[in-house]
Write a structure and sequence with these properties.
The protein is an alpha+beta fold. 37% of the residues lie in helices and 25% in strands. It is built from 7 helices and 12 strands. The strands form 2 sheets. Strands 3, 4, 5, 6, 7, 8, 9, 10, 11 and 12 form a 10-stranded antiparallel β-sheet that branches. Strands 1-2 form a two-stranded antiparallel sheet. It is elongated and about 125 Å long. The N and C termini lie far apart (110 Å).
């Protein structure tokens, strides 16, 4: 009897496909195959065609034939633009606050400092009027007033909370040298002048973002950096600025070169200022030069 073929033997049985010329029966080429290879190749091609069809349906064909595709893309772009608009609005508002704050620093405007001091003074059951005649004060009150005006407290209201917050910050020294002109608010000198070697690099005292880097007639090349806690550090009379507005700088990073630029200078030095919450502070209380 003839042996019965099984499915496995049918799949692995090898066949030879010969292609001949019809006119002279000359052999052109041959192909060796099995049914298992043919089935595997067919399934693979089918899967690839299905994947390609799904890809086209979701991309190219959807753009051509699906009327909802254009609306979906428009809604997606509209949402992205709305998110960007919110972010830009917030960023513009913060930039405006930085610029207004810094412009006031450059002008040396401390008028709001007096307002803060008057508003924060305790009144209890007594009221303080602005129409007091100084000439009518008693000799003891006049002496106390004179001593008080000679102190920086009459010009600066720096509360203990802000002071403690600054004490917690580790400040790098912007430059190594000696202080030639200390901090004197009554004379309009809201910072300290540090004399150092020529072409010495100036370093940032703490992490922050550059909010000003430009030339001014009085102070020459000026760079200002906004730090955390509404703290601004200002570096004046530089010979060259190495950072631009918007750059983030790390504490101790070089930002400029000491110089002698601007009209309000009489030699190479760095004029350094610290402003906290709109009030100038004595840099020597927090930074070692």
């Amino acid at each position: 009897m003839k042996a019965r073929k099984t499915l496995s033997s049918w799949l692995v049985n090898r066949y030879l496909l010969i292609i001949r010329n019809e006119e002279n029966f000359a052999e052109k080429t041959t192909f060796s195959f099995t049914y298992a290879k043919v089935i595997l190749l067919t399934v693979t091609v089918f899967i690839l065609l299905m994947a390609l069809s799904l890809f086209l349906v979701k991309t190219l064909l959807a753009q051509w034939f699906d009327p909802r595709h254009a609306q979906m893309e428009a809604n997606k772009k509209l949402y992205e633009l709305a998110v960007k608009m919110d972010s830009l609005s917030q960023e513009v508002e913060e930039k405006d606050n930085f610029i207004m704050n810094f412009q006031r620093v450059l002008r040396g405007d401390t008028s709001d400092v007096y307002d803060n001091y008057e508003n924060s003074a305790p009144t209890n059951d007594q009221t303080i009027t602005a129409a007091v005649d100084v000439n009518k004060l008693s000799p003891i009150d006049s002496q106390f007033r004179q001593e008080f005006e000679q102190t920086d407290l009459s010009l600066l209201n720096f509360n203990s909370a802000s002071y403690n917050e600054l004490q917690e910050i580790f400040f790098f020294s912007p430059i190594s040298g000696f202080v030639s002109a200390p901090y004197r608010v009554k004379e309009g000198h809201f910072g300290v002048d540090i004399v150092a070697k020529k072409n010495e690099p100036v370093k940032c005292v703490a992490d922050g973002t550059v909010i000003m880097a430009s030339w001014t007639q009085d102070s020459g090349y000026v760079i200002a950096i906004q730090h955390r806690g509404n703290l601004i550090s200002v570096y004046k009379h530089n010979a060259e600025l190495l950072k631009k507005v918007g750059n983030f700088v790390n504490a101790g990073e070089i930002i400029s070169i000491i110089g002698n630029t601007g009209e309000l200078t009489d030699g190479p030095h760095l004029h350094f200022e610290l402003w906290s919450n709109g009030n100038s502070v004595n840099p020597e209380e927090f930074v070692t030069f």
